[in-house]
Amino acid sequence: MPEFQYCKSTYSDPEAECVEVATNIPTTIAIRDSKNPTGPSLHVRPATWTAFQTALLAKPAREKSGRGRRRRRV
């Protein structure tokens, strides 16, 4: 069985926590925590991964979620 070859986004800080993704197996996309490479990983179908990426790209760059917002003084 081939081994997953994980890579980290070029946008990631080398010392920051992030996810790593392996796309070298045609039938499975594997996702894991970069700080815990021997821990569990999430496996999804390529079509599911593509749909996830498409949904992320379709979102506005700064969507208001209500988190971290300052309260307005009246």
Describe the structure.
The protein has 74 residues and is an alpha+beta fold. The protein has a domain at 6-54. Helices cover 18% and strands 27% of the residues. The chain has 1 helix and 4 strands; from the N terminus they run ββββα. The chain has one helix at 46-58, and strands at 6-8, 19-25, 28-33, 41-44. It has a 4-stranded antiparallel β-sheet with strand order 1-2-3-4. A hairpin with a 2-residue loop joins β2 (19-25) and β3 (28-33). The termini are far apart. The mean pLDDT is 84.
> How much is the radius of gyration in Å?
16 Å
The strands making up the biggest β-sheet line up spatially as 1-2-3-4
What is the average per-residue confidence, as pLDDT, rounded to a whole number? 84
What count of helical segments does DSSP give?
1
Q: What is the terminal-to-terminal distance?
A: 63 Å
Beta content comes to 25-35%
Q: How is the biggest beta sheet arranged?
A: 4 strands, antiparallel
**Mass-distribution shape:** flat
Order of helices and strands: EEEEH
Counting helices, strands and paired strands, the structural category is alpha+beta
In quaternary terms, these chains amount to single chain
Question: What is the number of beta strands?
Answer: 4
